[in-house]
Specification:
alpha/beta, Archaeosine Trna-guanine Transglycosylase, Chain: A, domain 4, Methane Monooxygenase Hydroxylase, Chain G, domain 1, five-stranded parallel beta sheet, 24 strands, about 40% helix, rod-shaped
């Protein structure tokens, strides 16, 4: 018995097998013809049997074989010297157990009468051995072609190799019209299958050129992929029409499969886009890596599992991460869902769920840090020190929600940085100016493409701790549109009773924000929604006095600008008088931002001189400022105006601090009308009407001639008409201005006033007292009139402002008129303006 295998190194045989050989000496042409065409050789009644494993040999086919069994090798040696004809019969498939139990020797079949004589099929082929090659390892390589069909009658010998008595099964090639049609259909179908890639094109050419219908049928059958039993069954068919019919049926089955496969491939090719191509390439790459032993499909998952094992996560986030990790393992890396799931896991593992930085609760150090970074702001520093003291006593206290409200440039944001430094906490700043999308706070749901957590969660990840100091800048400038209301989303964030379970739409897991210290900043409280404002402790930062600005410039602004412009203290000196001149003549603001710019302008001018070749110290004096900063931009308006009856100085509040508001009145012949100009708001117009009504109803007691109202029109004007003005706090100034005009008694030049009036003459309290009083100090005003009820607001004034100002507290308008008007009427208007 031998093991028979296909050997690609041997030459392929044609349909009839064999190759031409030269005739020997004295060989006749008939003998040469028989030798060159094995199909013409006479077949003896008895032939040696060469068993064939796992393969059915069809007539007209030739194949190389490998023979290693000694009996089969002896068979070849003896046959090659004779007529070269052997009976090639296929071995039946046996069960695995039976094959394993029998040695190779015992696998040889017995004669049919023996009990073990059913191992070979009864029908095979007559094979002709064309060529024998003996390899170095002792294995025979032979080229055999099948020339005829045979049937085994009986096995005649077992030793030294199997022999059998056979009969040749005739293959009648004659076909009727039906047979010719079946043959034509078989050729056409096989050609179609070759065109679709189901068979080699060379075989299609061979099928078209063959004339023997048996050979055509057998060649087609060899390409349709039948199993051993089915091929043997076809080999045993003797009638040519039955053979063609069976071959056509099997070919049609194969053709249908090839057509469906071709259609699928065509559809896939037509519909495949970039992502699909990438998917197939990744799958192929994965298979290649697996074959090479470089399978790193699970490296991602292994890394994530290691991170999850080492991460300090609470129970709920850990369960969610484990569940998502299991889901990730079932997703193909080329799927878009894989990236979404991987990104979500990264966020879960990177967040500082339980990472806390230790607070530095040294009160003395905290006070030192705050004093180093900021001058003044005693009330705010006191509040921070109080918070640290309570924190030292109660470690689990919720973080406070502070709101710094004040004009630009007073140090709200930098104060938050100083607080974080004094406490040893991470500092995170989030600018809320112009934010209109609620998702900026709460994040996007993961169903959206490119979804991310909100700014709160993103900042926590950046901080790397769950108890940083959050600075929510410009909270008063939050917007609202069709995408939601961000201020409403902040209600949960800024509520110490709720933010321990803050829910972000992306994470969908509560995150504890109770350890975070939130500080918000705003220029105005009016634009902050009431529920949001109610959650915060408001601390107002008013503008600085000239003395405070001078100290801030000397301690912080000048060193900062010298360093920014690469100038040392040996190159430039700015005296206190110079800095005061910059503050008074070149800036008019509540903060110090513009002051810093002006100091920077001086530094740039000095830098230009140094680069131009100047050496030595440059001392900038007040009179030199015009060279660096141009002419003075501000001056005392009260001293520059033409003063006289009908002109009063009021105090106004603006988002950038307090300011002076001049009220001018004039009379002309008319019928008692009132004209108001200066782009006044409705409330301010109502204050002017109320002032006139009060004066007309109390004309006698005020010393006003009642005939004036019937014979004259009154005009009230507030200069700087391009700037909108509104509010009730100019009521007192309007009454004083009108009374001054109608009585001829001028208003004191060095006095300013604020307060709302009623028709009965009462003076009601107003807001922004600190900002208004500081504006009066900046304008060199010596005295101010404010409502008596606002006396409590004077506590917030800096000591320097209290020393410079005389404050008149009034209950009604008569007290205000007594303090504001000169005792005697002015004989005539001065003809020249007073010098500033």
């Amino acid at each position: 018995m031998s093991d028979d295998k296909k050997n690609n190194e041997l030459p392929e045989s044609g349909s009839s097998g064999g190759s031409e050989q030269q005739a020997g000496p004295g060989e006749t042409s008939e003998a040469k013809s028989k030798r060159t065409n094995p199909a013409n050789l006479p077949v003896p009644d008895e032939l040696p049997v060469l068993p064939l494993h796992g393969f059915v040999f069809f007539p007209g086919m030739g194949f190389p074989m490998q023979i290693s069994h000694p009996a089969s090798m002896q068979l070849v040696d003896e046959t090659i010297l004779k007529d070269r004809l052997v009976a090639v019969i296929t071995h039946r498939n046996l069960g695995e157990d039976e094959e394993e139990q029998k040695p190779d020797d015992e696998a040889l079949p017995e004669v049919p009468s023996a009990p073990k004589g059913e191992h070979l099929y009864s029908v095979g082929v007559v094979g002709y051995i064309h060529k024998l090659v003996k390899s170095d390892d002792g294995v025979y390589q032979v080229l055999v072609s099948a020339v005829k069909k045979l049937r085994v009658k009986e096995f005649t010998a077992r030793e030294p190799y199997l022999r059998a008595r056979i009969e040749v099964i005739p293959m009648v090639e004659a076909l009727d019209q039906e047979g010719e049609a079946m043959l034509l259909n078989l050729r056409n179908q096989f050609k179609k299958m070759a065109e679709l890639g189901g068979a080699p094109n060379e075989l299609a050419v061979t099928v078209a050129s063959l004339t023997n219908p048996f050979y055509i049928a057998y060649l087609v059958i060899s390409q349709v992929g039948l199993n051993l039993e089915e091929e043997q069954e076809i080999l045993q068919i003797e009638d040519i029409k039955d053979l063609l019919r069976r071959a056509g049926r099997e070919l049609n089955k194969k053709l249908e499969t090839v057509e469906i496969s071709h259609k699928i491939q065509k559809d896939i090719k037509d519909d495949m886009d970039k992502k699909q191509r990438e998917f197939f390439l990744r799958e192929q790459l994965k298979a290649i890596r697996k074959e090479l032993g470089e399978d790193n499909e699970n490296l991602d998952l292994q890394e994530l599992r290691q991170r999850l094992a080492s991460a300090d996560l609470p129970e709920e986030p850990r369960k969610t991460a484990e569940k998502e990790l299991d889901r990730l393992g079932r997703i193909s890396p080329s799927s878009p869902e894989y990236t979404v799931s991987r990104t979500y896991l990264d966020w879960l593992l990177d967040l500082p769920w339980q990472k806390v930085t230790a607070d530095n609760l040294d009160l003395e150090r905290a006070q030192q840090v705050l004093d180093e970074d900021h001058y003044g702001l005693a009330e705010i520093k006191k509040r921070i020190i109080e918070f640290l003291a309570v924190r030292k006593l109660k470690q689990d206290m919720h973080g406070p929600i502070l709101c710094f409200v004040g004009p630009p440039g007073v140090g709200k944001t930098s104060l938050g940085q100083s607080i974080a430094r004094s406490m040893g906490r991470k500092f995170v700043r989030i600018s809320l100016g112009g934010v209109r999308d609620e998702a900026e706070i709460r994040g996007h749901r993961r169903t959206y493409i490119g979804a991310l957590p909100g700014r709160i969660i993103q900042s926590l990840r950046k901080a790397g701790a769950c108890n940083p100091l959050f600075m929510l800048d410009e909270i008063d400038k939050l917007g609202m549109d069709f995408r939601g209301d961000p201020s409403s989303a902040l209600l949960e964030v800024l509520d110490p009773e709720q933010n321990f379970s803050f829910s972000d739409h992306y994470l969908e897991i509560p995150f504890d924000l109770s350890k975070v210290m939130f500080i918000t900043t705003a220029n105005l409280l009016d634009t902050i929604p009431g529920p949001l404002r109610d959650r915060m402790e408001v601390i107002e930062l008013s503008g600085y006095t000239e003395e405070e600005k001078l100290n801030i410039a000397r301690r912080h602004l000048v060193p900062k600008q010298l360093e920014a412009h690469a100038i040392s203290e040996d190159d430039l000196r700015l005296s206190d008088d110079t800095l005061s001149s910059i503050i008074r003549s070149y800036t008019r603001e509540a903060g110090v931002r513009n002051l810093e710019r002006k100091i920077g302008g001086v530094c740039r001018g000095v830098a230009r001189k140094i680069v131009g070749g100047h050496s030595g110290l440059i001392e900038v004096k007040p009179e030199d400022l015009a060279v660096y900063l141009g002419p003075a931009q501000f001056f005392s308006e009260s001293k520059a105006r033409t003063w006289g009856p009908g002109l009063a100085t009021g105090l106004a509040w603006t988002p950038v601090g307090g300011d002076l508001l001049f009220i001018e009145t004039a009379k002309m012949k008319g019928k008692g009308g009132l004209n108001l100009t200066g782009k006044l708001g409705d409330v301010m117009k109502e204050s002017a009407s109320a002032a006139l009504t009060y004066i007309r109803s109390h004309a006698q007691s005020l010393g006003v001639d009642e005939k004036i109202f019937a014979q004259n029109d009154l005009h009230v004007h507030v200069p700087e008409g391009a700037i909108p003005k509104d509010g009730p706090s100019a009521g007192v100034a309007m009454v004083v201005s009108l009374v001054s005009l109608l009585t001829g008694r001028p208003v004191r030049r060095d006095l300013a006033m604020t307060g709302e009036i009623t028709l009965r003459g009462d003076v009601l309290p107003v807001g922004g007292i600190k900002e208004k009083v500081l504006a009066a100090v900046r304008a060199d005003i010596n005295e101010v009139i404010i409502p008596r009820i606002n006396e409590k607001d004077l506590v917030e004034l800096p000591p320097s402002a209290k020393e410079k100002l005389k404050v008149h507290l009034v209950n009604d308008i008569n007290e205000a008129l007594e303090a504001a008007l000169e005792k005697e009427a002015q004989a005539g208007r001065p003809k020249a303006k007073a010098k500033s």
